[in-house]
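During the no-cost extension, the postdoctoral fellow (Dr. R.K.) reprocessed legacy sequence entries with the updated structure-token encoder. One reprocessed record is reproduced below for audit purposes.
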Amino acid sequence: MFRSKSLGTNNFHDYIYHNLGDVTNIMEMDGTEVSVSPTTRYQNDIGDLQKSPGWRFFEDTNVTTSTDKAIQVRFDLNETNTYMNMFAPAGVPREYTKALGPATREAKGGYINKKTQIVAIRQQGEAWDKPYVHIFEPSKSTNSSVKSVEHLYRGEVIVGAKVKSQIGDKVIIDYVLCQEDASKIVTIPDAGIRFTGHFAVVRYEQNLSKAFVTLYIGKGTSLTYREHSLTADGTKKGQKVIEVEADSSRILGFKDLKNNQEIPKGSNLTVKAIVGSDFTEATLFINDVNVGTKTEAPFEWSSIPELTNMTEPAYLLKIEAKDAQGNLEERALTVLTPNQWAYTSDNKPHSIPKKIEFEHYDHGGIDIAYWDKKTKTVLRLDLMKWLILVQMVKLLET
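Re-encoded structure tokens follow.
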């Protein structure tokens, strides 16, 4: 959370964040890309009336129109197949600019010489009662654990965020509170929260069989969540963890699968779901493709094309359950296959210890065989072997 206000006229505020990466994606929470168009606002000899000198380094600046929707910004790192996600709740109109800046010299690998990805978020007027609130999460796939974010208010003042996450079969709801005035009392009636102080967190987490409530005061005097309460010690801090009864009627999750679990390339998979009694049906999606709906136990999917001979680098699995009133709940996870795997002649992994030879990486395409990251093409086998021979000669010469 970042608060800011001017001692003079509050024309606008900019929040600037930079990250390593190859691509910056600005999206709505459902994954819809937000369109952008070129802008000169950060070229301070042309479009910046304030002549801010640091903006001179921004290149390839493209901006969205003003939007008050919840936004996800995702930075894609192709070299490591990883991502950094930034989430902003809905409710405050802002313009999002993506740009390139100077290389990050603390970076490793190829990123030490690449332009740095930049996002600049402009908000008209003050940013004190309506501060910037962002949730950051690194991830190994495009399926991040954060599923939704929303502001928490004390009257018209934003004092925190509600963050809903899903990690495998565990659902986590965090209420993060940060008041600008520690003497104020904030109440969140829908959640049963009451807090006096500057900073606190309430967490509710539930897996398929257990549930816990965590109360934490970083700086304050008292915190209440439903029937549970915590009073800070003399340093204005405190923490309490309480095991509570899990709501088994609405449990939903995958059985025997975890997020980012790796399976051997070419495997066949059976997906089993645990579905609470409140739900009347459950549908499995694989990479956003509906592969079937079950209306009674066992909730199990197998022997279908999408779960057979799985060779893609990653598969997004999502279970969507519906209750009698039509309300939907979903759980999602990603299954990974190894990015590179040496095969035997019968397309099986090698047993070790033994020698694994270069030619076992001849086939498989990008992310499996030898390939050129710059051109995104697979090397011809004769050229690839020639390059290997050159490297071996160089090693012998040294």
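The two ends are 54 Å apart (CA to CA). The chain has a mean pLDDT of 87. The remaining legacy entries will be reprocessed before the final report is submitted.
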